Amino acid sequence: MKIYTNCSTLFLFIVLITAFSSCKKHDPDVVVTGESKIKVINAVQTETNQDLFVDGKKWSNPAIAFGETSSYLKISSGNRTIKFMGLSNISTESSLKFTPSLMYSIFLVNDRSGAREIVSYEDNLSNTETGKAKIKLINLSPYYATGINVSVQAGTQFVNGLAYKEVTNYFTVDADFNLRFNVVGSTNIKTIDKTNFVDGKIYTIWFSGTNTANLEAHIITDN
User: Fold this and answer.
1) 46 - beta bridge partners?
2) How far is the CA of 110 from the CAs of 11, 13, 152, in angstroms?
3) pTM of the prediction?
4) Using one digit for the tens of pLDDT, what is the confidence trace for 162-207?
5) Which CATH number fits domain 126-223: 3.40.50.300, 3.40.190.10, 2.60.40.2890, 1.10.630.10?
């Protein structure tokens, strides 16, 4: 009888420990700590310079002009408050969540009414194929209702009607090929010259503009 009681007690103890460990393992409130990297881009044409603040602390020096990109900055992972502030003291703020060891591009953008927001896209800096460049494309102009097409120089279209704030998957392209782009429905076709691409490099290409004539491609080398 004594042996039976001890065994029951031991069994109950093991069950409780197992249950506790299981609950601890799946606790949704556990915060995973680590570092992430972000680069920030000013994609608002009407504001020439923007300072960057992370959790209330100023990070930019100097301020970032339209079309400019910062280098990658290390930040603590998790929920961070990102704020852009211009010389006119107009600020745009957003709470973003960053995963440890991942890299992000953070853009300040505005819609057709001028309302600003902060958008984030994950960057993938894994290796590319020999003789190839790796690119992703983002449309950050709200003025093209039909979207943007992108094709290789030979005429093979690989992006059709890229909408505002939409991002593509990564494409692997020959580093010695030109890229062509235009607003859907427009015959005003523009070219990104092959000299912008280097074998083994990874690029983010984002588009700005207010009409078919001033559609512009901005090229960021990510690695």
Assistant:
1) none
2) 62, 59, 29
3) 0.83
4) 999 999 999 998 888 899 999 999 999 999 999 999 999 999 999 9
5) 2.60.40.2890
